[in-house]
Amino acid sequence: MQTLTALCCDVFVGFGFEYDAQTLRMVAVEVAEQTADLVRSIRDEAVAQGPVETKSTETDVVTTGDRAAERLIRDRLATLRPGVPVLGEEEGGEAATDGLRWVVDPIDGTVNYLYGFPWYGVSIAAQVDGESVAGAVVEPASGRVWSAARGHGAELDGRPLRISGADRVEMALIGTGFSYSVERRRTQAAAVARLLGEIRDIRRSGAASLDLCAVAAGWLDGYYEHGLQRWDWAAGALIATEAGARLRLPGTGAGDGLGDDAILCTAPGITEEFTAALKRSGAAGA
């Protein structure tokens, strides 16, 4: 695979193009907005066409809307930035993380999409050597556009984002999600029941990318989940960190007791307290 040569200030040369984080952000926004228009316009048809396919379990669904959305994303990215590899939820891609690649989730929150619950999004991120440098999450139902570029901050519809000033875990509003595995969901639910005694409340909305964006906006004080894939967090995690959040990604916290597949994103003022609360509740390894 061709790798990129770093010049300066997040500018890279490779695949016959010069890249910078802001330009990649604009590409991500453009393609995500176009895809969100498609996702919204074909929802009724996509749901009516059934039966809906499943993946890891009967509750892990994929619609024709997911597949059509990823095809559009790949086609547009191939036109705008030819030759750059794409890793996507529905069609896969190379596992190697070196160099520049796009990481896409055509519909994050497919169950919500299926039911008409409006919390789902199109997520597109550009990563260099496995780290997100630009990304966008667009909500088809509302039209809201979340985006970020490394070193340039995060925005919602062009307005700068900033995380909450939470500094007491007992007053923190926390987002999370559950596994598609029935047995693991039971374990996670039991841990959440214990965690509820240590925080303000829990929200479980069903789209990781948007939950991370909610931390960026201060709508949540923190978020944690186990078992996410790279496309679930690639754009949302960058948006949250560029808004000032503390982030712990899957595979990066060896020895911290949270579990290798955990993601944790919080306002800095509650990170240590909330991590301790997760461990006490048993949610850290659930």
Keywords for this entry:
single chain; 7-stranded mixed β-sheet; disordered N terminus; 2 domains; hydrolase; D-Maltodextrin-Binding Protein, domain 2; globular; alpha+beta; 5-stranded mixed β-sheet; 286 residues; Fructose-1,6-Bisphosphatase, Chain A, domain 1
Element layout with pairings:
Elements: E1 5-8, E2 11-14, E3 17-20, H1 21-41, H2 43-48, E4 53-54, E5 61-62, H3 64-80, E6 86-88, E7 100-108, H4 110-115, E8 121-128, E9 131-138, E10 145-149, E11 154-156, E12 159-160, E13 173-176, H5 182-195, E14 201-203, H6 208-217, E15 222-226, H7 230-242, E16 246-248, E17 262-266, H8 271-281
Helix pairs in contact: 1-3, 5-8, 6-7
GO molecular function: inositol monophosphate 1-phosphatase activity; metal ion binding
Protein name: Inositol-1-monophosphatase
Catalytic activity: a myo-inositol phosphate + H2O = myo-inositol + phosphate
